[in-house]
Structures are given as C-alpha cells and as structure tokens.
C-alpha cells in the first residue's frame, strides 16, 4: 500500500459496502494481517521515502496489521532490470559499500522501532534475481566470482537488520522474480547460498500469472524450493485482473490470452476472487507447511503515475473498482473461505 498517501492526495476514496474507510482498515476487516511497504533512499519528491513509510506503518499498526519492510537500496524502482545504486552512495568501493549498507539497514530498522512501529519482517532488496547495487553487486550466469561481492552485500544488510533490533528475531526475506520458473529459482538460491548467504528465513517470490506462468508452474516451483532449501516461502508480489474493459496500450494485462489459466479464471470480479482463493489453497499445500501466504501488489493503486508523466498500467489489477469500491477478491484474505465482511455493490468498470 505504498502509493496510499499519493492516492489520497489525488482524491482517491476507498469504500466497502458503501462506507468510506482508509484502505488499511478495509484490508484488515477482510482478514489481511500484513502490509508490505517499500523505502527508497532519496526518491523524487512524493515517492516512497522513509518518512512516508513511517506514516503508513503507523496507520497499519493502528489497524492491527504487521509490517514487511522493503528497502530497495536504490533511489527509485529496483527490479531484475534496474538495481541502480543510490546517488549518494556512488563511487564507493566494496568495503565502503558494505559499511554503508549495514549502517543504513540497521538505522532503518531501529527508526521504525523507535517510532512505535517495529518491523515484523524485512526483505533485503527487491527482486534481486540479477543482484543489487549495480555494478558492485551485479551477478551474471555462470560466473562464480560475481556472486561473492553480491553475497557479502546481502550478508551485510542482514547483519544490519539484526543489529537494528538486537533483542528480537527479525524474519529476513530474500526476493526474486521467478515464481513460475523452478530452474531459475533453484539456480539463484544454489549460487547465493554456495557464496555464503544462509542466515535468512524466507524465500520470497514474485508471481504474476501473465508473466510467470500457470498456477501449475508455481506449484512445481514451490514444491522444489520447499524440499531443497527447507525454508518458508512467501509470494511477496501477485495480482490478477478483474476486468479487461477499458484497457489501453501499455497496460500490463489487456487480453485474455495473457492469462494461462483463463479457462477457469477469467478476467472478471469472480475470476479474480477465485484466483486468490486458489493461490491461498496452493500455498497451504506446500510440503511441511512451508507456504506462508501472499501479498497483493498495490491493491489500491488506481490513479497515481508510476513515474512522473506516465499513465498507470494496473488499474484493472486492483482489488477496488474504478470508483474505489471494494471488490469480492478482498475476502480471499480471510482465514474462513467464503466469508464476507460486508455486502458490496456490483463492481463498476
């Protein structure tokens, strides 16, 4: 829910059964128990900095929600195609960067605790499939020497996170983007753990069906990861369309052909709800109870530009319709399958 403050400033109002409420209250009422908040080091004005994350963390805690904090170690979007070192950290060698990453992570975790919003889980970087803090932490397939600097950066961040709250065990997530690709996921964790990164608790995966394959592909990956590494597994990003009406060039999902399970999970409000229910059941079936759960990526992102001057490409993937009204898929957060917090009006496209 990192875009929440910007959405509210733009006039977006969320409602559930006709009642206007803050988004975190709606999520909690439907059974959500965590929010995921990103932090950039020195982002453009109005984007996800430490101050806005602290404000959203306070609101989340007030609503009874726990916090997964995601420092990107970048000034803006970090993903497999961009892991740009913050401008203020440019020019540092590996030794200096290790100290910077450790101190930054320690201070970030400590600050959240000092503000009465202690972090319950921390994700080290975002979609770090190809490394982080490029060029120092970039990794290339088959080049073992490239994994050592990356591994030391990850370990330094983990150490800093633990130091930020030394009197409690902070659960650490390592996140890659290959939810439906068992081979790529195994390659990454084999390489990273061989390079010395073992002090983490959770394997985090991105899984968008329209990019990462079918639910069957995800199931195979989850089973392999659970058996091979004996770690908890978390889907830290996912989404599914509730409509294809009104989509435009550049939208992430425009046609049914992009949905591998479209025959049973069409792009409708009911199909979206069933997608999340099936995902939940799939995670419950992971061997040895290692499937933790899932986070929906920005369920209230309806209007705010992802970058200055760009149009939003994901409005039909939200869990609220174009008027900010709650969709039935929100009930998939509930531990009771088929429960409903409030009656809702018919979705409006």
Q: Which shape, going by the Cα principal axes?
A: globular
Major sheet: order of its strands?
3-4-5-8-9-10-11
Q: What is the count of helical runs?
A: 9
Distance linking N and C termini: 22 Å
Give a structural overview:
- The protein has 349 residues and is α/β, with parallel strands linked by helices.
- 33% of the residues lie in helices and 13% in strands.
- It has nine helices and eleven strands.
- The chain has a seven-stranded parallel beta sheet with strand order 3-4-5-8-9-10-11, covered by helices on one side. A two-stranded antiparallel ribbon has the order 1-2. Strands 6-7 form a two-stranded antiparallel ribbon.
- α6 links the parallel β8 and β9.
- α6 runs parallel beside α8.
- The protein is globular, with a radius of gyration of 19 Å.
- 47% of the residues are buried.
- The C terminus is likely disordered.
Keywords:
349 residues; alpha/beta; disordered C terminus
Strand and helix layout:
Blueprint: H1 4-9, E1 15-16, E2 19-20, H2 23-29, E3 34-39, H3 50-62, E4 66-71, H4 94-114, E5 121-123, E6 131-132, E7 137-138, H5 144-164, E8 171-176, H6 182-194, E9 202-206, H7 209-212, H8 215-229, E10 232-237, H9 269-284, E11 291-294
Parallel strand pairs: 3-4, 4-5, 5-8, 8-9, 9-10, 10-11
Antiparallel strand pairs: 1-2, 6-7
Helix pairs in contact: 4-5, 6-8
Provide a concise account of the structure shown.
With 349 residues, the chain is of the alpha/beta class. The protein is 33% helix and 13% strand. It has helices at residues 4-9, 23-29, 50-62, 94-114, 144-164, 182-194, 209-212, 215-229, 269-284; strands at 15-16, 19-20, 34-39, 66-71, 121-123, 131-132, 137-138, 171-176, 202-206, 232-237, 291-294.
């Amino acid at each position: 829910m990192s875009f929440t403050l910007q959405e509210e400033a733009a006039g977006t109002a969320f409602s559930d059964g006709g009642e206007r409420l803050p988004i975190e209250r709606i999520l909690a009422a439907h059974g959500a128990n965590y929010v995921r908040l990103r932090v950039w080091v020195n982002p453009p004005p109005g984007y996800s900095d430490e101050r806005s994350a602290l404000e959203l963390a306070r609101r989340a805690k007030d609503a009874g929600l726990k916090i997964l904090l995601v420092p990107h170690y970048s000034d803006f979007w970090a993903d497999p195609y961009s892991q740009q070192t913050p401008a203020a950290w440019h020019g540092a060698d590996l030794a200096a960067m290790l100290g910077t990453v450790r101190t930054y992570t320690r201070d970030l975790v400590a600050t959240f605790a000092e503000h009465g919003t202690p972090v319950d889980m921390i994700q080290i970087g975002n979609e770090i499939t190809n490394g982080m803090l490029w060029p120092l932490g970039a990794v290339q397939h088959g080049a073992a020497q490239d994994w050592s600097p990356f591994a030391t950066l990850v370990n330094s961040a983990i150490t800093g996170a633990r130091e930020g709250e030394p009197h409690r065990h902070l659960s650490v997530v390592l996140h890659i983007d290959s939810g439906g690709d068992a081979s790529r996921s195994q390659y990454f964790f084999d390489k990273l753990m061989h390079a010395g990164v073992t002090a983490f608790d959770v394997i985090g995966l991105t899984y968008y069906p329209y990019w990462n394959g079918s639910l069957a592909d995800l199931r195979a990956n989850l089973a392999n990861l659970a058996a091979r590494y004996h770690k908890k597994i978390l889907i830290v990003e996912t989404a599914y369309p509730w409509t294809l009406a009104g989509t435009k060039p550049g939208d992430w999902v425009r046609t049914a052909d992009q949905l591998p399970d479209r025959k049973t999970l069409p792009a409708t409000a009911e199909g979206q709800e069933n997608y999340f229910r099936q995902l939940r059941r799939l995670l419950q079936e992971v061997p040895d109870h290692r499937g933790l759960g899932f986070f929906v990526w920005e369920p209230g992102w309806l209007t705010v530009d992802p970058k200055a001057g760009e149009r939003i490409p994901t409005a039909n993937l939200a869990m609220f319709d174009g008027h900010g009204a709650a969709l039935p898929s929100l009930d998939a957060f509930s531990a009771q399958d088929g429960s409903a917090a409030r009656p809702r009006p018919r979705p409006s496209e």
